[in-house]
Design a protein that fits this description.
alpha+beta, Heat Shock Protein 90, globular, transferase, HATPase_C_sf, protein serine/threonine kinase activity, kinase
Length: about 120
Amino acid sequence: MMTLLELHLLATPKAAPELRHHLRAHGFDVRLCATELLTNVIDHLGEGTPVTVRVGGTAVGNRTRIEVTDPDPRALPVLLSAGETAESGRGLALVDALAERWGVEQGPDRKTVWCELRN
């Protein structure tokens, strides 16, 4: 991946608009997916978790790749089917719907959740 942007921040609710601001040159789908991946860290690991967000282009296929790395290799994201009235559980479903593909790369002391969107 050719990294265009790399941010080190704490996963907090106010980090989401800050992230969208840094991604203002990108389309709505990129901003939404990046925010949803960040929000997943807040929801599942807790506020204040240190994360690294990387956004860049892929060498093949003219795609934008978003990566969010956090320090917990065990808490893996799960695609849920949220009911119509559910107030949460839609984040990864949105990423799944918008992205060409997504996945998780685990390391011994971290994991990276990523997705790729066609430009």
